[in-house]
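Sequence, please.
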């Protein structure tokens, strides 16, 4: 079984949430800004780095919300021709923007970033991580 560890940030400002549009192969939809941890990288540093890469914003973490664990069977993986399941661990932090300007990632796994009203999240095409993270919050 393959393992992937990733870090994400939940950034809410008033009644809106910052999301990135994920587009990899047949998988696409709005997601939390974040992604895979580089070898030797602290998960918190990975979350801050990924938020900046995907949104242009510099963020500060406010604390750990939780950890999500899932197993994807080979036929549901992004990797073409995968023959083994993937165990994914997603470390989710609460964060806020401290600086920067909204921009889009170039040549990455996301192609847009945008603020969305929290009330409209249920109508968005989104990945399950968004709902999982919002369920960790006490709104």
């Amino acid at each position: 079984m393959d393992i992937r560890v990733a870090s994400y940030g939940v950034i809410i400002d008033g009644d809106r949430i910052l999301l990135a549009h994920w587009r990899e192969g047949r998988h696409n939809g709005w997601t939390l800004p974040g992604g895979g941890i580089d070898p030797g990288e602290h998960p918190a540093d990975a979350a801050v780095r990924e938020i900046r890469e995907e949104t242009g914003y510099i963020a500060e973490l406010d604390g750990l919300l939780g950890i999500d664990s899932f197993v994807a069977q080979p036929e549901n993986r992004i990797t073409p021709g995968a023959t083994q399941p993937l165990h994914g661990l997603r470390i989710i932090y609460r964060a806020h923007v401290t600086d920067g300007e909204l921009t889009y990632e170039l040549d990455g796994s996301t192609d847009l970033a945008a603020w969305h009203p929290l009330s409209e999240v249920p109508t968005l095409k989104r990945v399950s991580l968004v709902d999982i993270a919002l369920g960790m919050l006490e709104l």
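The chain is about 15% helix and 50% strand.
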